[in-house]
């Protein structure tokens, strides 16, 4: 059974830090591009951070550059999002995504974890 399970979301004060985890089961993340998305209330889901399957290429939303870091531990089949200097506008449900395009497309999502940043 394929699963992505996020954890680490919490209520934190502005300026604080959180580390989100995304544990995968039923497949191996090493051949997948891994991403974190977020969706704030009343807004569309947006890409926060991307990590390629090969080469360790990363991409971040402008709003989180310099504050968030995505990483993976293939041995633990887990992806992380380190979030520092959190702001109230970072409040959202954060989702983990695993994507493989070739030879067959696979696209998996977690259930989300709530991050709330108080001012």
Note down, in words, how this protein is organized.
With 119 residues, the chain is an all-beta fold. 0% of the residues lie in helices and 53% in strands. The protein contains no helices and eleven strands. Strands 2, 4, 5, 6, 9, 10 and 11 form a seven-stranded mixed sheet that branches. A four-stranded antiparallel sheet has the order 1-3-8-7, with no helix packed on it. β5 and β6 form a beta hairpin. The termini are far apart.
Write the topology of this structure.
Elements: E1 3-7, E2 11-13, E3 18-25, E4 33-39, E5 46-51, E6 58-60, E7 68-73, E8 78-83, E9 92-100, E10 106-109, E11 113-118
Parallel strand pairs: 2-11
Antiparallel strand pairs: 1-3, 3-8, 4-5, 4-9, 5-6, 7-8, 9-10, 9-11
Short description:
With 119 residues, the chain is mainly β. 0% of the residues lie in helices and 53% in strands.
What brief labels describe this structure?
11 strands, single chain, mainly beta
Quaternary structure of the protein? single chain
Shape: globular
Largest sheet: 7 strands, mixed
Low-pLDDT stretches are none
Secondary-structure class: mainly beta
N-to-C span = 40 Å
- Tell me the β content: over 45%
Mean pLDDT: 97
Number of strands: 11
Number of helices: 0
> Which range best describes the helical content: under 10%, 10-25%, 25-40%, 40-55%, 55-70% or over 70%?
under 10%
Rg, Å, rounded: 14 Å
Series of H and E elements = EEEEEEEEEEE
